[in-house]
UniProtKB/TrEMBL annotation:
Name listed for the protein in its UniProt record: tRNA/tmRNA (uracil-C(5))-methyltransferase
Residues noted as binding S-adenosyl-L-methionine in the record, renumbered to the chain: 186, 214, 219, 235, 295
PROSITE patterns tied to this protein: SAM_MT_RNA_M5U, TRMA_1, TRMA_2
Keyword entries, A-Z: Methyltransferase, S-adenosyl-L-methionine, Transferase, tRNA processing
Alphabetical list of NCBIfam families matching this protein: trmA_only (TIGR02143)
A biological process from GO: methylation
Molecular-function GO term, any one: tRNA (uracil(54)-C5)-methyltransferase activity, S-adenosyl methionine-dependent
CDD domains referenced in this protein's UniProt entry, alphabetically: AdoMet_MTases
Amino acid sequence: MALHRVNTDDYQQQLDQKVARLRDAYAPYTALEPEVFPSPPSHYRLRAEFKMWQEGGRVDYAMYKQGEYKKPFVIQEFTVGSERINALMPPLLEAINASETLRKRLFCTEFLTTLSGDALITLIYHKPLDAVWEAEARALQKKLGVPILGRSRKQKVVLERDYVIEKLDIHGRTYQYKQVEGSFTQPNGEICRAMIGWAKSCCKDQAADLLELYCGNGNFTIPLAENFRQVLATEISKVSVNAAQENIAANGVENLAIVRLSSEEFTQAIDKVRPFRRLKDIDLDSYDFSTVLVDPPRAGLDADTCAMIARFPRILYISCNPETQLENLAALTKTHRIARFAIFDQFPYTDHTESGVLLVKR
């Protein structure tokens, strides 16, 4: 099924099939019925990237099937995209086609939007961006009322800002996040909110401390901090760490420290294999970690990190790839049992599903 146009009548059936498949896959490790978090059937995707198809003196939004990059599908509607994206697409395209400066050698357009209505548009070119382009782009920015960002080889032109501000209402409180263009953000806003809410519910009445690996911009970290005495979080991306620090301040969180370390480096640090200058202001021995939260990349946890987190009483493991999570569970369930199991339909109408498990020490 083409992602740009979906039949929402099929949604529940495809979700049921995913749930059945994952229930069977996780059966060796748990008999729990999964908690299922469905996506909105349409307009759920907050970010989108389109190739720009140039032909006959005009440009159109396009997508390609994998491996067939000379057969574009021109996009005329994008029902999986947020309503904000859909509202911006026609006037943006009209303005680009009315300006040779904006159209010429444009090869990609990216939209980044939020549930709270903010938006950012990035135009990516195979040409240097000069003062003439900047003047045209500023006029376009004023016309649309949306920040425009220009990119070319070794060039980034920020006309106003390179981020959006998201506001998420979770369990009666509103959290604010700076989401920087080019850095990781959850693509499905409602599922992101559901995942955070589920994680918070797994961490009620925790008097001790939380360790989080792969914390990104503080997406989970900030809401969970109120459930713990202290929180220590790690992230390797400098852009994400900087955004997280701003998000900590914006949300008034005072019991949370973020350090720029990979999970492998943190494992070496906590095992005292070697010191890290980035931890010079952190006293690891002062923490009493009752829970560790991991939300790793698709490759899952490496063996050393998996062994390290197995020492903790509680493991909250959010996964964007159930296959690698299952590989890790083969080791983790030797020391822990699964107390909760959740399925998050991040990408409807695809085979992709995300999962969460709460593991408790046996």
